[in-house]
């Protein structure tokens, strides 16, 4: 008979309050309860939302908190109610679950599952924590980022907030950004403002989200993909991933929207994706589109406006729509 999972002591990045500090601490991770899995993390990524969390959003002042929401790992142990995952499966934890049955899941228009929503409390769905920070003899319960916490060696997540992937289809470093950065950018070009064959697109900000939007635009057949960034070093990677025209926004003598329009015969692009969170770019992105039946999608907001964050999140995870099944997408586009 298999030995029951025990408490694991390991390391985690813990934020102790608004503004930090964030320190590597020794934590105890409890065994998974019946509907949960414990995951040995392989890779985790840093997202701007983690920085927001350090600065107090959306944590409601609840600390200490183990950070991180992007990552990939292997199932180390699981509860007896978990039937569709096994020890050794490679999984991506997500901040949003999917029941497949509620109105949202069935709508095809949103993946804001009503049964397994974003875990804004920083606790497991049953209202308890699996993390305890150890400081000598002192033990302090810790919150997790949202529905999961990936900046740690081991973590527990409800099985409804984990997606199994084919470990051979993508290396862990690339798989690590699937659940947030990649899905935000790619999902926007697929679902929010569907890019059509032969259309023109502009992407403002060529970080991980923006480059994912570029790849989404390319894979959906955009004929012209204009990339805007102030960082000249991004020109090369952007062109390799699909940007046909790169605009360095530093030192322009005219508004960048005008430069975009000059590249589209004065009309503007069919769809624009703002991925920088830089406020002046938001206005420019809206001015850079054709003024008839077009969409400008804002994906990031550095100053943390709730409305925009909700908007942003509504496009996250669109790719991970069928839980437990292999994620059906062209992983190779990221490599
Ligand atoms: Zn993120
Ligand atoms: Zn649902």
TrEMBL record:
PROSITE patterns: ADH_ZINC. Keywords: Metal-binding, NAD, Oxidoreductase, Zinc. Transmembrane segments: none annotated. Its cofactor is Zn(2+). GO terms for molecular function: S-(hydroxymethyl)glutathione dehydrogenase [NAD(P)+] activity; zinc ion binding. It comes from the Eukaryota. GO terms for biological process: formaldehyde catabolic process. GO terms for cellular component: cytosol. SMART domains: PKS_ER (SM00829). It holds the Pfam family ADH_N. Belongs to the zinc-containing alcohol dehydrogenase family. Class-IV subfamily. Homodimer. This is Enoyl reductase (ER) domain-containing protein.
């Amino acid at each position: 008979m298999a030995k029951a999972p025990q408490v694991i002591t390991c390391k985690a990045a813990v934020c102790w309050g608004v503004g930090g500090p964030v320190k590597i601490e020794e934590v105890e991770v409890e065994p998974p309860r019946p509907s949960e899995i414990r995951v040995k993390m392989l890779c985790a990524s840093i997202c701007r939302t983690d920085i927001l969390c350090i600065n107090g959003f959306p944590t409601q002042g609840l600390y200490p908190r183990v950070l991180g929401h992007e990552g990939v790992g292997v199932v180390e142990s699981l509860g007896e109610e978990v039937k569709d995952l096994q020890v050794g499966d490679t999984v991506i934890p997500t901040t949003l679950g999917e029941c497949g049955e509620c109105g949202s899941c069935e709508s095809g228009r949103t993946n804001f599952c009503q049964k397994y929503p974003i875990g804004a409390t920083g606790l497991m769905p049953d209202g308890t924590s699996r993390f305890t920070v150890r400081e000598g003899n002192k033990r302090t319960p810790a919150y997790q980022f949202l529905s999961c916490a990936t900046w740690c060696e081991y973590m527990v997540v409800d099985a409804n907030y984990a997606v199994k992937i084919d470990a051979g289809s993508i290396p862990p470093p690339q798989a690590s950004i699937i659940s947030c950065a990649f899905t935000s950018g790619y999902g926007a070009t697929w679902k929010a403002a569907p890019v059509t064959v032969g259309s023109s697109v502009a992407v403002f900000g060529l970080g991980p989200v923006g480059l994912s939007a570029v790849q989404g635009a390319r894979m959906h057949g955009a004929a012209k993909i204009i990339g805007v960034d102030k960082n000249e070093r991004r020109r090369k990677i952007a062109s390799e991933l699909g940007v046909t025209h790169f605009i360095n926004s530093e030192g322009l003598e005219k508004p960048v929207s005008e430069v975009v329009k000059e590249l589209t015969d004065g009309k503007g692009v069919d769809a624009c994706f703002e991925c920088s969170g830089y406020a002046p770019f938001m206005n420019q992105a809206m001015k850079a589109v054709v003024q008839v039946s077009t969409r400008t999608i804002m994906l990031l907001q550095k100053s943390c406006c709730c409305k925009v964050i909700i908007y942003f999140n509504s496009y996250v995870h669109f790719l991970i729509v069928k839980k437990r099944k292999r994620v059906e997408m062209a992983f190779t586009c990221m490599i």
